[in-house]
């Protein structure tokens, strides 16, 4: 989607939060038929963080948001839009976003959830960017937060070993490039969905289909893997073309962290070495909508992401949904 106005959304702060409890592959091998070797070889995952009993998605999101606001040097009262991507809301309604809004002590402003599973953060970022470009917001808090452990079937080794809990957040601010040749901010966003692939990855419950039962993740791993490679390649190509870039122009690939093999495949396609890819999947596993903002938080905090660099985000998840964003950091 191209800009309608001469306004850009600049990332001015990043934050994240991971629950204290770490579960290593070997811990899982004690309760199900799996091994550290199998999980590491097939996925690159070595451990994941799991929320404590009673620790909710909004609790994780609040801390990530506070850290992002602090990094931006802003107060909660400065925010005039809150978009929260999650698949694991505190409640069926209201949105987890309004729980976070009140926990942060924010005044009234639009606050809502976005449900695009593992692509949720890219969707939320695109929505907030469009609000900013249209002049409907100036300072947006965009959060990806999940307690995915709550919708896993802990007896299904095919899915239980893949996911973790966490939250990440970014603060976007409207900025006018003012004729700068290479303005900073979100350059383009690209969103897709195709509901025909519902059965590849879904949760078998929910308020309308199975009242009173939340359900657990069901996945055809091989099919998801095949779609991931195809659809991510296509959306990345679309994002590069929209910006007149080639793969090697990307300074940092910050992908959704589902599987090391998918990430390595995308990096190879772009012609990027491992030194230009942000990886957290080994320590966080797949935190769904939280994975990209957690990776941004880490790479920004340790100085890898520098102002002016080109950062490419890409994600695919249940729906199927997929998307990409190009940011001049
Ligand atoms: N430990 C040990 N063995 C296992 C485990 C496990 N945790 N899980 C499955 N196996 C077994 C299977 O039962 C099967 O055994 P069999 O040959 O005796 O039947 C064998 O391992 C191979 O299973 P496959 O499913 O064919 O293994 P595959 O190589 O496809 O790897 C995986 C599975 C890792 C899930 C892979 O398909 C994948 O990464 N897919 C992408 C899915 C994904 O990332 N989903 C996340 C959500 S979507 C997203 O975020 C993009």
What's the SSE blueprint?
Layout: E1 8-17, E2 21-24, H1 25-29, H2 36-43, E3 47-50, H3 57-72, E4 81-85, H4 96-103, E5 111-114, H5 120-133, E6 139-147, H6 157-160, E7 165-175, E8 185-193, E9 201-203, E10 217-219, H7 221-242, E11 252-255, H8 260-270, H9 281-284, H10 291-301, E12 310-317, E13 321-328
Parallel strand pairs: 4-5, 4-6, 11-12
Antiparallel strand pairs: 1-7, 2-3, 6-7, 8-13, 9-10, 12-13
Helix pairs in contact: 3-4, 7-8
Notes on the structure:
- By secondary structure, the protein is of the alpha/beta class.
- The chain folds into 2 domains: about 10-175, Thiolase/Chalcone synthase (Peroxisomal Thiolase, Chain A, domain 1); about 185-329, 3-Layer(aba) Sandwich (Peroxisomal Thiolase, Chain A, domain 1), CATH 3.40.47.10.
- The protein is about 30% helix and about 25% strand.
- The chain contains 10 helices and 13 strands.
- The chain has helices spanning about 25-30, 35-45, 55-70, 95-105, 120-135, 155-160, 220-240, 260-270, 280-285, 290-300; strands spanning about 10-15, 20-25, 45-50, 80-85, 110-115, 140-145, 165-175, 185-195, 200-205, 215-220, 250-255, 310-315, 320-329.
- The strands form 4 sheets. A 5-stranded mixed β-sheet has the order 1-7-6-4-5, with helices on both faces. Strands 8-13-12-11 form a 4-stranded mixed β-sheet, sandwiched between helices. A two-stranded antiparallel sheet has the order 2-3.
- Helix 4 links the parallel strand 4 (about 80-85) and strand 5.
- Helix 3 crosses helix 4 (about 95-105) and helix 7 runs parallel beside helix 8.
- The mean pLDDT is about 95.
- Acetyl coenzyme *A (ACO) binds next to helix 2, helix 6, helix 7 and strand 12.
């Amino acid at each position: 989607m191209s800009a309608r106005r001469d306004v850009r959304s600049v990332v001015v702060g990043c934050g994240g939060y991971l629950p204290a409890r770490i579960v290593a592959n070997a811990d899982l091998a004690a309760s199900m038929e799996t091994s550290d070797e199998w999980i590491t070889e097939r996925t690159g995952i070595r451990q994941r963080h799991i929320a404590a009993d009673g620790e909710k998605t909004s609790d994780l999101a609040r801390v990530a948001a506070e850290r992002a606001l602090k990094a931006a040097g802003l107060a909660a009262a400065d925010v005039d839009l809150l978009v929260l991507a999650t698949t694991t809301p505190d409640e069926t309604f209201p949105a987890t976003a309004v729980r976070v809004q009140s926990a942060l002590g924010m005044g009234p402003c639009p606050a809502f959830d976005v449900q695009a599973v593992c692509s949720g953060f890219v969707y939320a970022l695109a929505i907030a960017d469009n609000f900013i470009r249209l002049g409907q917001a100036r300072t947006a808090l965009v959060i990806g937060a999940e307690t995915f452990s709550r919708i896993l079937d802990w007896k299904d080794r095919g899915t239980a070993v893949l996911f973790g809990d966490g939250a990440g957040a970014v603060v976007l601010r409207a900025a006018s490039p003012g004729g700068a040749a290479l303005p900073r901010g979100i350059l383009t966003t690209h969103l897709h969905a195709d509901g025909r692939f519902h059965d590849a990855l879904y949760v078998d419950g929910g308020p309308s289909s199975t009242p009173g039962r939340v359900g657990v993740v069901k996945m055809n791993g091989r099919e998801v893997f095949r779609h991931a490679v195809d659809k991510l390649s296509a959306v990345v190509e679309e994002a590069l073309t929209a910006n007149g870039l080639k793969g090697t122009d990307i300074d940092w690939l910050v992908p959704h962290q589902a599987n090391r093999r998918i990430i390595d495949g995308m990096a190879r396609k772009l012609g990027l070495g491992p030194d230009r890819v942000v990886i957290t999947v080994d320590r966080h596993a797949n935190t769904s909508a939280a994975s990209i903002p957690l990776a941004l938080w880490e790479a920004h905090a340790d100085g890898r992401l520098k102002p002016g660099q080109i950062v490419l985000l890409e994600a695919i998840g249940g729906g199927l949904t997929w998307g990409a964003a190009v940011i001049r950091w």
